[in-house]
Amino acid sequence: MLTFRVVGPGRAGQSLQLALEHAGWRGLAPLGRGDDLIDAAAGADVVLIATPDGAIADAAAAIRPVPGVAVVHLAGSLGLDVLAPHDRRASVHPIVALPDADTGAARLRGAWFAVAGDAVAREIVAALDGRSIEVPDDKRALHHAAAVIASNHVVALLGQVERVAAEAGVPLAAYLDLVRATLDNVAELGPRNALTGPVARGDWATIARHLDALPADERAGYEAMVELAKALAGERVPWS
What we know:
This protein is of the alpha/beta class. It has 2 domains: 3-135, Rossmann fold; 141-236, Orthogonal Bundle (N-(1-d-carboxylethyl)-l-norvaline Dehydrogenase, domain 2). The chain is built from 10 helices and 7 strands. Strands 2-1-3-4-5-6-7 form a 7-stranded mixed sheet, with helices on both faces. Helix 1 (11-22) links the parallel strand 1 and strand 2. Helix 1 (11-22) packs across helix 3 (101-108).
């Protein structure tokens, strides 16, 4: 059983604190904004920095290094250099949305994590029955971009669905089963084979009708997604 301290008890920090405590690890009192961090590593085996990305380097620098104590950040896009001057450094980025502490703690069990650095990263993932994938420092920004596309951009796209549907008098709820089935298809078949609809058929007349019907401020988003769908379909579709 390892002893840990969270620095930055926001949604991610609280979620991880609960999840690790449920897994049998011993959590020390978390430290947040305004707390003196100099002795954050005292009495701990691991310090988990869960601050906003821009504050990680300052938080790490404020913690007095303790031999043998690992310092870990949760950022998806940052490397291990932000954890200087600590010798044992690691990154553990949960590839899951953490909206609040209780929901987040439950979702962390069995989740995917992008890890790098000290072996304690894999110990954390193992304690949560999770799955780890090594992402080196020079690929962290690409990994995080993919995570943002998979989560934040999907939410933004569904916001467009809601707005366009409202123009037709249809609620967003009418499309959510379609979204869920599409995700199931992607999981089973992969994105390229799961693609259906007018782009997959090369039905440019239907796409033109869509563009004519859409409000002017919604067309750019639709056209951008058509281009992504065309790139995904590749040579399957005759372009015109």
